[in-house]
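G., the chain you wanted modeled:
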Amino acid sequence: MIKKIIYIFLFIMITISGGWLGFNVYNLMALNKEKSTSSLELKLSGNSFVEVTINGKYTDDGGVAYYNGKEYPLKPEGNIDFSVPGTYLVKYTADIDSDLNHSIYRTVKVVDKNVPIITLKGKQEMSLYVGEKYKEPGFTVTDDSGVDLTSHVVITGEVNSKKVGTYKLVYSVKDDSGNEAKATRKVIIKNRPVVTNIVATKVTAKEKGDVAEKKVDLNATSNSTVSMSYTSNGIHLEGYVKNGSGEYSIKVCKSSECTTTAMKTKDKYYYSGDIKLSSLANGTYKVKVVDKKEMDLVNKLDYGERLNRAKVGDKLVTFSYDNDVMTFKVEDHKYEYDIVIDPGHGGIG
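Predicted structure as tokens:
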């Protein structure tokens, strides 16, 4: 009986002692872990929030972990697409101990504050005559995001080609960040000229004479000479092309041999320039005005306002106007009275 009591007592004591021992071992481990964790400090270098312009440059400042008196560099994790606006989180951790998996974060915001760029094709200021249809030359749009915004452009305003006036077209577009760009084109509608002044040289050997004025209905012909005069080695021409493109040249041909001279554009439908005749070989020449196609050069000026015959350099040049189509003949100049046999405007010898 006594032995039984002793065994019971010992069992109780061992149980109590073991429970106390287990409790203390558990708490010691927990305290040790708490102590280890509390001595870990993570710190970012630079700001925890960074704003970067789209497609801009960004340098990660990194960070440091302090643990038990030592420093450990923080490793960043996470991808940032600097071509796409948005908010990105970068996670930083330290490679110290597998039990120490604390982390810290930095916020990086990619922003787009630049407006798109609208580039107008054609001219920013265009001129048309009444009745000519306005055709939109087009435009392109570039944006930092790389997104093609051309189809998102809104055009406000309209052009009434039947009414004289100045019209404004406004082109606007917004990118995904709300940045708005605008561009403006001015379109001027004006009356087509019907009356023009013709300046010509009268018949004298070496002097310019009277100034003649003539009304020409430019709508009645595909092209017309509106002014002509002699120069020291040829003639000066000014002309008009109905519905012309704005780029003109004069072509003179003897059979298949041709010489082309580019003209200056005075207005979209008017040209001017000098044609050199003194170096041409003898023969008869046809004259063409070249625009989108070749056309016979028409001259509807009155007889007194047309050039007829003159000495040009060492050549005698005689003009003809069959059915108002201009041609000319080049010959050697032999006698001074050659000019007055068929009086014209007199050249410059």
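Residues 157 and 169 are 5 Å apart (CA to CA).

Shout if anything looks off.
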